[in-house]
Design goal:
The protein is an alpha/beta fold. The protein is 41% helix and 16% strand. An 8-stranded parallel barrel has the order 1-2-3-4-5-6-7-8, surrounded by 6 helices. The relative contact order is 0.17. The structure holds phosphoenolpyruvate.
Length: 250
């Protein structure tokens, strides 16, 4: 954590909870929210966005979504555009999550279009990168991260509306967390990539979150690393006590 960058704790609910359950979870988070300077974001499924936004109104918790379509509108049965998501009150959208890369074949070009569409619609994007286990074991993880960054971030991206999340795929939902020094090494590398693509100033300002089995008992050691500016939380964001427990370390 650096005092120059506002810490972010974001919850990715994935495809979990019903609408009423999600609304109640938000109420519980709001009433148990520890005193914090951190920016708190919850990202429920699309179907919950509008109901959750009414609960979050007048609170310090922001709303995010988990996906948007890369096109503005059209014949894309079952899809939801960035503009539609923004209309619910969402301020952020997660893009490039490894589950979307893996199960939906999303490419760097797709991810870039989604970020641009989200930003054009007035939202910020939480852009995820991360290596798989064989890439970590082969020692090529920094090259993988460089490629994932370079194929997405170009001159059209508004870095003031961008958060990057480092999520090693081997740590997502597995209970295996990257060690604080492993996380910090990659975060520092991401900052160098951003400096090269944009500027040193932007690289010092961009927030880089760690994601992958973050829990209240490992959050502190990760969040105190210099280049770790917060967390993207999956499983532990579905429980108000554990989500607020993480926030208490932010
Ligand atoms: C995620 O999928 O973004 C994530 C970090 O999940 P978990 O915290 O459950 O590992």
């Amino acid at each position: 954590m650096s005092s120059n960058r506002k810490t972010v704790i974001a919850g990715n609910w994935k495809m979990n909870s019903g609408i009423e359950e999600g609304v109640n979870l938000c109420k519980e988070i709001i009433s148990n929210l520890p005193t914090t300077d951190a920016e708190i974001i919850v990202c429920p499924p699309h179907t919950h966005l509008y109901a959750v936004s009414t609960v979050l109104k007048n609170s310090s918790v922001s709303l995010g979504a988990q996906n948007v379509h890369k096109q503005e509108k059209g014949a894309f049965t079952g899809d939801v555009s960035a503009k539609m998501v923004a209309e619910t009150g969402a301020e952020w959208v997660i893009v490039g999550h490894s589950e979307r890369r893996q199960y939906y074949g999303e490419t760097g070009a797709d991810i870039r279009e989604k970020i641009l569409m989200a930003q054009e619609s007035g939202m910020g994007a939480i852009f995820c990168v991360g290596e798989r286990i064989h890439e970590r074991e082969a020692g090529v993880y920094l090259e993988v991260i460089t490629r994932q960054i370079n194929e997405v971030l170009d001159k059209r991206i508004d870095f003031s509306k961008l958060i990057i999340a480092y999520e090693p795929v081997w740590s997502i939902g597995t209970g295996k967390t990257a060690s604080p020094s492993q996380a910090n090494e990659v975060h520092m590398h991401i900052r160098q990539c951003v400096a090269f693509l944009a500027s040193t100033k932007i690289s010092e300002e961009v927030r880089i979150l760690y994601g992958g089995s973050m829990k209240p008992d490992n959050a502190e050691s990760l969040l105190t690393e210099e280049h770790v500016d917060g967390g993207l939380i999956g499983g532990a964001s579905l429980n108000a006590t554990s989500f607020c427990g993480i926030i208490s370390h932010a």
